[in-house]
Design a protein that fits this description.
about 270 residues; mainly alpha; 10 helices; about 60% helix
């Protein structure tokens, strides 16, 4: 939706325009990766019902393994995070059930080569534009896995999750905000995240237009985007559990907010 003038004034039009520009450049990247239809390494491939099922099974299995890890590590988490962790574990069935939408209907869309590890740390701001860097994919994946064609929405979800991290790392790590005051500031972090992410997504969709990397069916688009957002947040949860337990609250909040999304919110 269009961002209201009052909200633009509150957050700053310059910041919102930067998010929109990043959405445009992301769309242009994906259109460029879609354009080579002669080289088999880059020519697009269709989603199939078999691929949808493999995606569903992979996402479910990964979520189950990550939640098992959360169960093992929950006693070692900071007290402030334990309640949210328990809340997520109680919603395990709901979380796993969300992925079932991936196989409820055929999804007509094309797979392409993508960035594969897309977030705010992978773009450089020149002062007037963005340069996208590090297109080698996730370092922990094999080269064969990095060359696989995937949905462009995987990159989109990665950037949307990165906006969420930017909002909440700023809130949780700020030396000027007392822990007891964080609940009062949280709605403002939510507002910033939703506005910046919304500007990015709107601009991306306008840039891509009717290119076959996005489903024409709004419901199919929502299903795919939510699935990739949820999978990315679960990936972040596993990473933080293994590397930075003090940061676990960020992906936990992200997962819970995605579960709370209602149909038609994207």
């Amino acid at each position: 939706q269009e961002i209201p003038k009052a909200l633009r004034k509150l957050i700053g039009s310059a910041s919102i325009e930067m998010a929109a520009l990043l959405g445009k450049r992301t769309g242009e990247l994906h259109l460029a990766l879609l354009s080579n239809r002669e080289d088999p390494s880059f020519s697009p491939e269709p989603f199939t019902t078999l691929y949808q099922r493999s995606l569903y099974q992979a996402f479910q299995s990964f979520a189950q393994r990550t939640l098992q890890l959360l169960k093992k590590r929950i006693k070692g988490l900071p007290d402030s995070v334990g309640k949210e962790a328990e809340g997520l574990l109680q919603r395990e069935g709901e979380l796993l059930g969300r992925y079932k939408t991936l196989i409820d209907q055929p999804i007509s869309v094309m797979k392409i080569r993508i960035h594969g590890d897309y977030h705010l740390g992978q773009v450089l701001f020149t002062g007037s534009d963005f340069v996208i860097i590090d297109l080698e994919g996730e370092p922990l994946r094999s080269l064969g896995e990095r060359r696989l064609k995937r949905s462009a929405l995987q990159d989109v979800a990665g950037m949307l999750r990165s906006f969420h991290y930017a909002a909440y790392s700023g809130l949780f790590q700020s030396s000027s905000i007392k822990p007891k005051d964080i609940p009062a500031f949280t709605p403002w972090a939510d507002l910033w995240n939703e506005t910046m992410g919304g500007a990015f997504l709107r601009s991306y969709r306008e840039t891509v237009g009717d290119a076959p990397i996005l489903p024409n069916d709004p419901k199919a688009l929502e299903i795919l985007l939510h699935a990739f957002l949820l999978n990315k947040a679960i990936y972040e949860l596993g990473y933080e559990l293994n590397s930075r337990p003090d940061w676990v609250r960020l992906p936990l909040k992200g997962i819970l907010s995605i579960l709370d999304m209602k149909a038609g919110t994207q």
